[in-house]
């Protein structure tokens, strides 16, 4: 899946992000009025917020056709960070390249943030078992493997949480942060696709053309979990 997706990003999305910023940003004076350090902070926060909002849009029915290729991985690890349909990379261009340029984000900031964005995507999809005390502190600021693992849960309300890519700030502000699910209680994936053998690369590439499946297993059962005790925003082992 990475074979077409990575070139789609490197040859279309990334050049569009930098090229549009070079073309449009100089004529957008709003951010340019800010002092340089403050402008950089504003640009980074804006780019990360656009990543958060784009991720939420990917869970809407039309874009979910593409994004479910990423979520139906049954064994989340570093390779999941590259398991995207190339169509998702192309579809993201207006939002992730066009909007920053229209808002006046500079090309250098776009390029630097994209490197951070990709590194964080690899980090929080990894199966690293960080010391809990460390991760408990990290998640106050940034998305961690435990936090993003909950986003890949087969329980729908858990999948519809933790949309952040770099910072957890936006999930906190929009009340979409959910951290109180024990890792050993998670089942990763999309309920409709429970057999890895039924998901060869050829089907994954054509999956966006298939009808949307109900959020249920093939036998009709719906993954669920009783609401857990404790604050939603407190990480548990």
Count the E strands.
0
Distance between the termini: 31 Å
Enumerate how many helices there are, as a single number: 12
Strand content: under 5%
Q: Globular, elongated, flat, extended or rod-shaped: what is the shape?
A: globular
Based on CA atoms alone, the radius of gyration comes out at 18 Å
Which stretches of 5+ consecutive residues score pLDDT under 50? Answer: none
Q: SSE order, as H and E? A: HHHHHHHHHHHH
Main location: membrane
GO molecular function: iron ion binding; oxidoreductase activity
InterPro entries: Fatty_acid_hydroxylase, Sterol_Desaturase_Related
Domain Fatty acid hydroxylase: 43-176
Task: Describe the protein.
The chain is mostly helical. The chain has one domain. The chain has helices at residues 2-24, 29-32, 36-58, 61-71, 86-91, 93-102, 107-125, 132-138, 145-151, 156-159, 169-173, 201-206. Helix 3 crosses helix 7. The longest helix has 23 residues, at 2-24. The model has no long low-confidence stretch (mean pLDDT 95).
């Amino acid at each position: 899946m990475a074979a077409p997706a990575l070139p789609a990003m490197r040859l279309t999305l990334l050049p569009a992000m930098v090229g549009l910023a070079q073309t449009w940003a100089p004529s957008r004076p709003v951010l340019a009025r800010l002092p340089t350090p403050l402008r950089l902070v504003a640009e980074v926060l804006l780019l990360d917020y656009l990543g958060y909002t784009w991720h939420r849009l990917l869970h809407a029915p039309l874009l979910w056709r593409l994004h479910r290729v990423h979520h139906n991985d049954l064994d989340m690890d570093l390779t999941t960070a590259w398991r995207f349909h190339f169509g998702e990379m192309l579809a993201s261009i207006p939002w992730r390249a066009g909007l920053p340029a229209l808002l006046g984000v500079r090309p250098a900031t776009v390029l630097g943030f994209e490197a951070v964005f990709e590194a964080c995507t690899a980090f929080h999809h990894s199966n690293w078992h960080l010391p809990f005390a460390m991760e408990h502190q990290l998640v106050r600021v940034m998305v961690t493997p435990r936090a993003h693992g909950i986003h890949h849960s087969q329980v729908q309300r858990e999948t519809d949480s933790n949309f952040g890519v770099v910072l957890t700030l936006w999930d906190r502000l929009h009340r979409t942060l959910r951290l109180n699910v024990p890792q050993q209680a998670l089942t990763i994936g999309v309920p409709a696709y429970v057999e890895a053998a039924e998901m060869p690369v050829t089907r994954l590439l054509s999956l966006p053309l298939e009808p949307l499946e109900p959020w249920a297993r093939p036998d009709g059962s719906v993954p669920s979990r009783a609401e857990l005790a404790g604050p939603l925003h407190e990480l548990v082992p």
